[in-house]
Structure formats: structure tokens, C-alpha cells
């Protein structure tokens, strides 16, 4: 069986047929004529055919050369189509970024990050999925998104991660609540039913780790907005990110209670599939998040 010819040799053969000269074909490809002649001889040896008649007036294809050249042209057209398709896919991929973020990150940090990225990449299409940290991790593992942002304090199995910011949870109550006027003990907080986020939320996971023996919650809700509304309505206290309650506290709709001896700081992280290097828009967004987190 003949050895497979390389694509550059096929291009050379096609050009010889079109231009009628090995020297002009070599010039078109940007190679020296002796190198082109050697390449053509290697192609003939691999195929076991004489493809070109070399004469004083130029080079002409043999009958076998005409047949091979016609088929070579089709091969080269197919390869050109393949490369064009790959380039289109790559360009489309570079123009799209799929992100998933926990609610705290999505509502209070991601808009600024994405706004800065879009200023340098105005044609970039970004799809942002807002969900809890557990679901973000699953979406990243499944390849449904390119990059995720989570609040989860636990291990991130199968994922690479990088710290992008530090957050703190605060105990919040209505302004007239007794905790707004005096410090609260950890034991008192643990035995008080709270309004909490659903399981799988990074905020809920942080709270459960800080208060492993807390009493059952008063109410479990699926969004930070709903939890804030329940606290303001006097249902029960809650533990939420300071990012989420800063405006409510500043405007007097909620008050932050001081808790002695309880550290509710947490690290917000970017996550992506383990062992994979981030490239393109995902790497650019991570760089923006890290830089703004430091600032």
C-alpha cells in the first residue's frame, strides 16, 4: 500500500499543474526549487507513479499526474473546509462565555466583573446562570458552564478553584428587635429558630458548619430576597451576607446584631474542572474577579 502523501506535497503538485512550472510552483509556496523538486520526487516514490514530466520548457503533468492532481485538489478543498469550520467554531467559542454563580456573587459581584470584561470584549456573549453553590459545582463538573463562582465552605471535589473575594455573614433582625440593642451569645443564637436559605446554598452551608447543633429553622426559603423580606416582616432573625443586607442596614430596614465569639467570614471562590487550564474569556473573567477582589 502506498504511503500517505503530505498535504504540502499535494499543494505543490496542484500548483505545478496550474502553473506549468516547478520553479513557479515553488515560488508560490515560498520554498527553494531544489527543495520543491525533492518533495515532488518523494511524492512520486510514495505513490509509485510518475506524476510530472520535467523538460526544458517547463513541467507538465503525466496522465497519471492529471488524475492524482484532480483528486488531490478535492482533498485540499475538503481540508480547507475543515479548517474553515474549525475556525468558525473557535471564533464562536471565543465569543461566548457560560458562567454560573451563587446568588450572593451573582447579585452583588458578578455584574461589576462582567461589565469590566465587556468593556474590553464588547462582542462577547455571556450567559449567567444564578443558582445555589451546590448546583454551580454540578454544572461545572458536567461541563454545562465554563466557569463557576461559589460560596461553599467545604471541599470542592474534582474542581480547581481560586479565591476571588472574602465575605462575611451577619445576623440581621428588624430594627426594633431586642438583639439590635445588645450582643448575642452563640448559644442564644443556636437555640433560636432562624429564617434560612435552602440546603445546598453556600450561606446555609456556612451557617450549618458554624452552628452544627442549631435548633430547626423557623422558615426555609429559596432566595436571599425572600429571607430579607421575612426578617423585615418580623418572622425571625436570619444570617445573610453583608453584601446582601448592606443597603437594608444603611436605610434602617434591618439591623445587624453583634454575636460574641462567632466567626462567620467565608471565602468566595471561582471553580472550573480539575486539571484543566482556563483560557480565553473564562481566564479573562477570572483575572478581573481576582483583581477587583484584591482592590
Descriptive account of the structure:
By secondary structure, the chain is α/β, with parallel strands linked by helices. It has twelve helices and eleven strands. It is 48% helix and 21% strand. The protein is rod-shaped and about 105 Å long. The mean pLDDT is 89.
Distance between the termini: 65 Å
Number of DSSP strand runs: 11
Radius of gyration: 33 Å
Based on helices, strands and strand pairing, what is the structural class? alpha/beta
Oligomer: single chain
Shape: rod-shaped
* Largest pleated sheet: 7 strands, mixed
Q: Which bin fits the share of residues in helices? A: 40-55%
**Percent of residues in beta strands?**
15-25%
Task: Report mean pLDDT, rounded to a whole number.
Answer: 89
- Poorly predicted regions: none
Number of helices: 12
Order of helices and strands: HHHEEHEHHEHEEHEHEHEHEEH
Q: How are the SSEs ordered, and which strands pair?
A:
Layout: H1 7-19, H2 22-29, H3 33-47, E1 52-55, E2 58-61, H4 63-94, E3 96-102, H5 103-108, H6 110-120, E4 125-131, H7 133-141, E5 147-150, E6 159-173, H8 186-190, E7 195-197, H9 202-210, E8 219-221, H10 224-232, E9 238-241, H11 242-250, E10 255-257, E11 265-273, H12 280-294
Parallel strand pairs: 3-4, 3-5, 7-8
Antiparallel strand pairs: 1-2, 5-11, 6-9, 6-10, 6-11
Helix pairs in contact: 1-2, 1-3, 1-4, 2-3, 6-12
